[in-house]
Amino acid sequence: MTDAEQPLDLVPLPGSERPERPGFRAHGGLAPDSRVDATLVLRRRAELPQSAFAEPLSRDELAERYGASPQDVELVRSTLEGLGLTVDEVDAGARRVRVSGPVQTVARVFGTDLAESSAEDAGEGATVYRQRTGGLSIPAALAGVVTAVLGLDDRPQARAQYRYVPAAAVNTSYTPPQLGTVYAFPDGTDGSGQTIAIIELGGGYVQEDLDTYFAGLGIPTPSVRAVGVDGGSNAPDGNPNGADGEVMLDIEVAGALAPKAEIVVYFAPNTDAGFLDAVTTAAHADPTPAAISISWGQSEDGWTAQARTAFDEALQDAAALGVTTTAAAGDDGSSDRVGDGRPHVDFPASSPHALACGGTRLEADTSTGTVRSEIVWNNGTGGGATGGGVSAVFPLPSWQAGVGVPSGADGTDAGGSANGPGGRGVPDVSAVADPQTGYRIRVDGQDTVIGGTSAVAPLWAALVARLAQSTGKPLGLLQPRLYDSVPAGKVADGFRDITTGDNGAYRATAGWDACTGLGVPDGTRLLSSL
User: Which of 256, 246, 244, 255 lies closest to 196, judged by CA?
Assistant: First the structure.
């Protein structure tokens, strides 16, 4: 019996069970010598306390107190190399270890089977993915040390939260600076000295389009830089209705509203490992960004428990470093595109360490900023609606305890639901997202209008950068200060309440609700309250 045939002493990896993914089919084994990359997440050397969010830590302080211990890193390295895997990268501060090896070795070490997979409706020449089912195992020596193994299944993990509409089909639309007027972004701020990180899982940007777009706004083109993670890159596909639309929307909204901020775009593969690695790379960058904008997500049900936990811990790290992470709440109403007839919320927006961004429909006078009407975005079946609801996996945070987060699917406190009771409420904040009153954007040489909560995440990231510029310090985990003991039915300081409309299971009410959160910003008042 060869070494490769010797049975390994493996133990189950908690939370690694992967449910069936509809829409894909396995159709054969992988070549035994094909190479597989994975990201391992290690335990903290000490638990991160709530007090860590009060004052930003330096990267060195975070690594020294709450990163992976040198002993754990060495144990993981020696164990996996001894089993035939290659350790390609170690980041003890972010508690990540990147490994690779031939598929047969990877499958053996992690106790799984990997198969070729493609979308069920894909034609000839379709993209081929790896897929796994069931749970994973790890070498017994690493039990409790390795908390997640990500990337073995490389089917798309998230979807972009935006809605594309041909410009000719829209009567009402806004440039980002016009929205800065509507939402009273504070005068005398432009993002100077701040960095905004943007996470992208596909597509790319064209510099010529950016130059043309910002020239049309009368704004010098902001500094935009691309960073590749796990082999990702700035790779525009020429499809304005594809990932390019997401990338350009994010850059142009953030850049137009915080034109003096440096914008760094992190491109990563659309896998659980790529998504996590992009966020951790952005959060631990030098300089530390004021905000990370995330416009990609998936229903909580579409993640393994280990991936959700690892991602939430990465957002905790970001908050401890002083970073505010803004995340789109989803564009498919209270169902979040899950077809079981029950409410669901989108992740990572449902993480209590992300500022979840919902959406509205806006009618406003752009010359004066006067709002004629602003209601919950809901264009009916197939037309898109803001996400929102109650998390099924994250408990109710202390700072949300008094605002009236419902436990019932009908938006009341009566009865239980798939989402509760007592879970984290989504969203926290909002801004315009309806594509019928959307954002004027340029993508792949075309001027168009785009909506979706993915536009709200970079809008709030730009506002965060301008608030951080004015206050002279990073904002980090912003929610405790935004909620600040706001009781149910009351309007939080620095917000304009949205009280009309619904997103399916939930209706807008006075104060916080599961459609638009605390409401839309009054940036000048918000700066005063901070």
Answer: 255
